[in-house]
């Protein structure tokens, strides 16, 4: 069994749900249950069909072979792969077939961001956008790049939550465009951000990202996603009042992408 047996036993004893922190010999760790699954044949066929269409249509290329096969311990293997590649993810200290034990790597970036005054909040978000660009420029993708999956400890950040095995086969620029959308989509109207601040901030975040990830292919995927996003915006407009924030949030993001990526075809 890899890792410290006593540490694993303490993790088993403390873990109630899927993830939680625990103290062992005066240090704090995180235990996470390994819940990855290999899809059944039928599900895999569906996934391949849908992802294949998205890949062809939005990235102009077919699916690629998965670098890491799916399975219960997919996230553990992914973290170890990224750590070996020098990326900022928490080291896996011990694991067995049920769970893994991680270094406690900081606080949820979303909670940290919400508490900061505007100038510091902007600085932090610009830094996170640039770091996502660096991560992508190094040839990686996250799959869950929302800021709640970036942990912050002092001036260091760490990425967590790498469960999306199904996206392994997406062309890299499309997986990265998906990360960028997830990262940006949660920011408008989040916590203390009002609409004016959100509209001012998003273009700066895109700029910071592209300054660190200059690959045209990600931008091209976003350009191909944009007409679909416009349709969605039009369809969702009548339901705006019914939704608390999600439709307004998506509208701000789509407006910003439109502004940053180029004019409307009918403008
Ligand atoms: N290594 C870690 N250090 C500190 N907190 C962590 C760590 N891993 C997870 N957490 C905390 O647990 C939460 C859920 O973990 P995550 O891996 O994102 O699982 P989920 O799939 O449930 O979102 C995170 O938002 C974070 O607050
Ligand atoms: Mg998470």
Protein architecture, described:
- This protein is of the alpha+beta class and 267 residues long.
- The protein has a domain at 107-261.
- The chain is 51% helix and 12% strand.
- It has 9 helices and 7 strands.
- The chain has helices at 5-14, 41-59, 74-84, 109-115, 118-137, 172-185, 195-212, 216-236, 246-261; strands spanning 19-24, 27-33, 92-95, 99-103, 107-108, 150-153, 156-159.
- Helix 5 (118-137) packs parallel to helix 7 (195-212), helix 6 packs across helix 8 and helix 7 (195-212) packs across helix 9.
- The longest helix is centred in the C-terminal third of the chain and has 21 residues, at 216-236.
- The chain is globular.
- It starts with a helix and ends in a 6-residue tail after the last helix.
- Magnesium ion binds at residues 144, 148-149, 161.
What would you say about this model in short?
About 50% of the residues lie in helices and about 10% in strands. The chain has helices spanning about 5-15, 40-60, 75-85, 110-115, 120-135, 170-185, 195-210, 215-235, 245-260, and strands spanning about 20-25, 25-35, 90-95, 100-105, 105-110, 150-155, 155-160. The site of adenosine-5'-diphosphate (ADP) has 16 residues, from strand 2.
Ordered list of secondary-structure elements with their pairings:
Layout: H1 5-14, E1 19-24, E2 27-33, H2 41-59, H3 74-84, E3 92-95, E4 99-103, E5 107-108, H4 109-115, H5 118-137, E6 150-153, E7 156-159, H6 172-185, H7 195-212, H8 216-236, H9 246-261
Antiparallel strand pairs: 1-2, 2-4, 3-4, 5-6, 6-7
Helix pairs in contact: 5-7, 6-8, 7-9, 8-9
The protein binds adenosine-5'-diphosphate and magnesium ion (MG).
Adenosine-5'-diphosphate is lined by residues 18-19, 30, 32, 90, 102, 104-106, 108, 148-149, 151, 160-161, 163.
